[in-house]
Amino acid sequence: MARRGHGAGRSFHSFPLILAVALVVCSAGASFATPAAANDPIDAGGVQLIGPRTVIVRDLPAARAEGLSQNARQRRPMPDQAPFQVNGDLPAVSNASDSSFSAQPASPPALSGAGFEGLDNSDNSALVGFTVTPPDPQLAVGPSHVFEMVNVIGRIYARSGAVLQTFTLRSFFGVPAGYSDTDPKVLYDSLSGRWFASYVSYIDQPGSVNDKARLHLAISQTSDPTGAWNVYFISYSQLIPDYEAIGVTTDKLTVSSNVFDIDTPNYFGVDTQVIEKADVIAGLPGASVRLTSLPRRADRFTVRPAHTLTSGSDQYLTTRANGTTLTIIKITGTPDAGNVVEASATNRTMLAQNAPPASAALGGNIDSGDSRLLDAMWRDGRLWTSASAACVPSGDSTTRSCGHVIEVDTNATPPTIAQDIMFGASGQYFSWPAVRTDALAALYVSLTHTNSTIFAEARATGRLATDPANTMTGSLLLRAGDIAHDSSRWGDYLGAAVDPALPRCVWLVGEYAKNTAGWNWGTFLARTSYSSGCDADSDGWSDGAEATIGTNPALACGTDAWPADINNDGLSDIFDIVFLTNNFAVSVPPAPSRQDIAPDPPDAMVDIFDIAKMASFFAQHC
Ligand SMILES: [Ca+2]
Ligand SMILES: [Ca+2]
Ligand SMILES: [Ca+2]
Ligand SMILES: [Ca+2]
After folding, report:
1. What is the pLDDT of residues 375-423, one digit of tens each?
2. Residues lying with their CB under 5 A of ligand 1, a single-atom ion
3. What are the distances in angstroms from CA 21 to CA 3, 14, 28, 465?
4. pTM (2 decimals)?
5. How confident is the model over 352-387, as pLDDT tens digits?
6. Of 349, 245, 346, whose CA–CA distance to 303 is shortest?
7. Which residues, other chains included, contact 163 with Cβ-Cβ below 8 Å and sequence gap of 6+?
8. From ligand 1's centre to the CA of 546, what distance in Å?
């Protein structure tokens, strides 16, 4: 979100930047008098994608920086001229009686494996030559890869956590020389087997004219993110599409952003572009990609498109209309059919959603964010959205930061709020929640936790679909903080991703205070599940399946470690398959559980599913 910061207290700036800021300040007042005229080509009816460039990730140049500077980004403030702010903030104490704070028999998900360290600010300094805050952690998980992005760099891991490649997002998205870059988003779309990513770049020229920005969109050509991507952008003049977010449905790619003047805090509204998904997957020339640009909405701020996890063509989006009103937007149609429309926008009363106080932490407060919504996802008629919020937890008398998590039933017409949860605890601060539900409709939340006696740490919480409504208690430590955090920024969002190979497993990325070059932040990646649905040793079987089969869920190699290797010779081949064919169509027992290796979890029968699963590892070593 936002840019190299004038006004970001503890950062230091290059002299030309200070000069540019001074010029901006001198010219403010005139620079936004004619926003429509300044807004080219968006308001000229000519919104289109430019590109694509084909980018082969494994061929991206190795980056190695020389020198080091620091770069604290300024959060573009919530605009004060629009309805969402007028009548917006209400006393946080209005949540004090919320029953969701009461202890209930809910619990956080369990960790699978130990998790692993993600990108941190020292990686920024090594690759780009400066450190940046906040980190904006994101992650996406595909069949064989994990893709993490932080503010200006990206990394692709094997599922084991082994680092395959680290690169600058500037090189990946093709940011022009001289532009600043910010706000990465990445997701893996299991509906299409493709990865989608977005990014924003801009250049603030001296004076108030000739500023440019780009909204970058990247779509992988296969399910392998180290291979080829189609990389496009939408061009903006004088304006920046700030704090963008993407959502996908079966047939659409939707990107929504807050449009600000590049020079000033002036706000013009939310832009939402709806793109024919098949066109960008196919890599059609930008001018041929069918795209519908919905009318700019100055009465809205920070609209979050949902990541659609199960088949569906309706694109749901969420936004905070005011301090107690959630707006649920539904976009239908396709650009191809020429019938994209905002079919409905439903206002529903929610628990007070106001900006939280800073989170107290050992060695200094951290930024809990503001009142905007952060994340949204949809699965099987259920829409979830999340935000940091002011709250007074049960048993507390002080306003803290909480994780506000809302479930909407989109099968109802119009949609209704099914659950409205303010996750907090006395004396504690929680912030920056990111949300996903697994295939069993269990909820997983990545968030930041602090109190006055600990360094900022990464935690998870969540709930089972069968837990009592509006309950969510307890949290799981992902990574404790190491040191006092020393920047004025945290977040601006976190990430969560459902494992497409193991859909009862959700991967989380969290931020924690880590001793790094520049501002002290690091990220941590972890697998979590309510049903032993993750594959901690990355051998192709979930922890729960291995427990049933009788193999070691923590080891991929060794005696009775890998389900695909029944005779324990380190190789999966015909000798292993013969065990299965000898017990074909036999129930378990009498057939040994060691041979019941599919599906996941196993079905107490040795049959073609088991043979097919083993055959998928044929001739592989553990
Ligand atoms: Ca396993
Ligand atoms: Ca194993
Ligand atoms: Ca074998
Ligand atoms: Ca079986």
Report:
1. 999 999 999 999 999 999 888 999 999 999 999 999 999 999 999 999 9
2. 535, 537, 539, 541
3. 12, 11, 10, 51
4. 0.91
5. 999 999 999 999 999 999 999 999 999 999 999 999
6. 245
7. 155, 156, 157
8. 6
Among residues 354, 353, 405, 352, the alpha carbon closest in space to that of 382 is found at: 405
User: Could you give all domains of the chain from N- to C-terminal order, each with its CATH number?
Assistant: 3-39+88-529 (2.120.10), 545-621 (no CATH)
* DSSP letter, residue 359: B
CA–centroid distance, 515 to ligand 1, in Å, is: 32
* 533 alpha carbon, closest ligand: 1
- The DSSP secondary-structure symbol of 176 reads P
Contact between 451 and 459 under an 8 Å Cβ cutoff? The reply is no
Locate the DSSP E strands across 75-192. 110-120, 130-133, 138-141, 145-149, 153-158, 163-168, 180-189
Rounded-to-integer distance, Cα 330 and Cα 327, Å: 10
Of the chain, the end-to-end C-alpha distance in Å amounts to 43
- pLDDT for 37 beyond 60: no
Distance 544 CA to ligand 2 centre (A): 10
CA of 568 from ligand 3 middle (Å) equals 5
pLDDT in tens, 448-465: 999 999 999 999 999 999
Is residue 346 scored above 50 in pLDDT? Answer: yes
* Helical residues (DSSP H) of 534-605, grouped into ranges: 543-549, 574-582
